[in-house]
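Checked the freezer inventory, then went back to the computational side. Two predictions to log before the end of the day. The first one is the construct we discussed on Monday; recording sequence and tokens without edits.
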Amino acid sequence: MAHKKGQGSSRNGRDSNPQYRGVKVYGGETVSAGSILVRQVGTVIHAGANVKLGRDFTLYSVVDGVVKYERLGRDRKKVSVYPAAAEQASA
């Protein structure tokens, strides 16, 4: 085995693809059923009304409606989707 690197050899050049995590839909926006709301690692944001948690902690909408981010207790957050008809009636 040579103790010196040969000319032009490089031990770098590997990289992984980005994960594209974060909030995909913000509060007040309208979504359709199945829309991804948040991509995350662990439950940084919890699932609220009409929102389900995927096996990779992705939060997605179950119904068509308007997104609302709310507090869950003192130090947690949750995201809910309220049907658009109910949202207009309360406004």
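The second is the one RB wanted added to the comparison set:
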Amino acid sequence: MPTTIADLAADPAPLTRRLVVGREAFVLRALLPSDTAAMTAFLDGLSETSRAFWHGDVDAADQAAEWVEAIGRYDKLRLVIHREDTPGRLDGMVDLSFCVPDVAELSRYAGYGIALDPRRTARFGPCVSDARRGTGLAAAMLPPTWDAVRLLGCDRVVLYGGCARGKRSRATVLPAARVPRRGHVRRRRRHRHDARHRSIRRTRRRPGRGAVGRCRTRARGPAADGRA
């Protein structure tokens, strides 16, 4: 039988991953009943800019309590991440939904020529604390998130609020993406002259800077050719 959200609530171990971002060790895992206070603090700590795009119109304590109460129920799975040595302070989370509403998502994506299969599609919304923005933490959370999506039988994801207008135009249309195959790495095609071009760039300097290679420094003044 396929894994269910209730199964993962009873045994969340398959969702747990240890990640290293920079030089810090993190643990990504399922949201637990003991995380109410930590989730409240995480939501309260988001800036106004972040909250404008992430449950900003809901009280943090009420939202955290609602998410904890919903563990193992409905169609939601929530992952959290924290430093290995500070499990009581959350640094980010991923909100996953395995229900794709007809009007909100299916019809909207169909209008852009993208056909979604609700049985194989999940919606996701990542969020990291303001202090962790730009550190690579959000990117590190994606592979374990795709593992969770595959574990529950889906192979396509769409971003929550993938099409927005007006003030929230930052969340523009996000095409539905296939979940990458495990171990798949997209490689950049290298030109056969790349290595030669890099070696040339390393040796190029403006005259007068002591460079070697194609642009050699020329001494200036009357002593340049040994004459006084």
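For RB: The chain has two domains: 5-178, 194-225. The domain at 5-178 is CATH 3.40.630.30 (Aminopeptidase). Let me know if you want it refolded.
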